[in-house]
Amino acid sequence: MEGSAFVLYNSNMRSAQSNSAIQVYNLFGESSELPDVVHCETIAARSVLHDWKFAAHRHARLHQVLLIERGGGEATLDGRACAMRPMHVVNVPTGVVHGFNFLPGTQGWVVTIAAEILDETLLAPEGLRSVLSQCTVVRGTPQMRAAMKQIFAEFAGRGFARAHVLRALSAGLIGLVARELARGKRDESAADSELFRRFEALLEQHHLERWSVSDYAAALSVTPTHLNRVTRAATGDTASHLILHRLIREARRNLVYTNLPVSTIAYALGFEDPAYFSRVYAAATGLSPRTFRERLHGGEE
């Protein structure tokens, strides 16, 4: 998508829990759509407009990495208060509720990466997705800082192959963050870690066949209960939700990168009823497939 707006969707909706007031944002503290393959912004640029405070919110389909250069403050991550200091990095996965209370004058960078870009980058056998699902503050490194500066420099330019270079640089940053997260990750048995990697690989192979949790558990020679325990330990989510999310990612790819009718996409994903597929997609993303595609193309089919 060289030089074009990589518009995803306007996710300014309420949380899936009807009584929740948690806002769903696309960018760092705002509800506008993501205008590029990645989005780069200094912490100060938007914080000064909000008195350096951001109430609890989440990003439905965006992953963010913040690096504190000077100053700091406190991040609220999934209900936990975490101190932010110079050369700290905050990893904010998609869908996780978080908020910030920065010290006035804090300097640093925010890189926002679309879920579709991560889908192209994170290969199941490498095990990065489970590590990056942690919403936490870790120690930054000189390599992360250098990667951030490279991304910002490329983002500001309009050179040939800009989108490709941004994707590659973002993948490098995400890898560095995953490496640091893995160092501080809770101890887990090697057997469970290997089991989750095998589940991820099977999910890539069989998600279009609409396997159930029991099907995956049987293929892995474990019980569904044990598989759920392992996926919760690795990602904080159930196996059934991971299966659904993988199917939704595939649907989004088809909606973004093809002109196939919604009904054809539904059948290709194993749904016998396109209307049911549309309901499932809307429940997961907040928009029907047709509305998502219309907004993606500026209201044109």
Write the topology of this structure.
Layout: E1 23-24, E2 38-42, H1 43-47, E3 53-58, E4 62-70, E5 73-77, E6 80-84, E7 88-92, E8 98-102, E9 107-114, H2 115-121, H3 128-132, E10 136-139, H4 142-156, H5 162-184, H6 190-206, H7 213-220, H8 224-235, H9 239-257, H10 262-268, H11 274-285, H12 289-296
Parallel strand pairs: 1-3
Antiparallel strand pairs: 2-9, 3-8, 4-7, 4-9, 5-6, 5-8, 7-10
Would you give an account of this structure?
- It is a single chain.
- The chain has 301 residues and is α+β, with helices and mostly antiparallel strands.
- It is 46% helix and 18% strand.
- It has helices at 43-47, 115-121, 128-132, 142-156, 162-184, 190-206, 213-220, 224-235, 239-257, 262-268, 274-285, 289-296, and strands at 23-24, 38-42, 53-58, 62-70, 73-77, 80-84, 88-92, 98-102, 107-114, 136-139.
- It has a five-stranded mixed beta sheet with strand order 1-3-8-5-6, with no helix packed on it.
- Helix 9 crosses helix 12 (289-296).
- It starts with 22 loop residues before the first strand and ends in a 5-residue tail after the last helix.
- Mean pLDDT is 82; it is low at 1-21 and 28-34.
Give the strand order, joined by hyphens, for the main sheet.
Answer: 1-3-8-5-6
- The secondary-structure class comes to alpha+beta
Strand content: 15-25%
The amount of helix comes to 40-55%
CA distance, first residue to last residue? 18 Å
H-E string: EEHEEEEEEEHHEHHHHHHHHH
Rg estimate, integer Å: 19 Å
Uncertain residue segments: 1-21, 28-34
Tally of helical runs: 12
- Characterize the overall form: globular
Total E-strand runs: 10
Rounded mean pLDDT is 82
Largest sheet: 5 strands, mixed
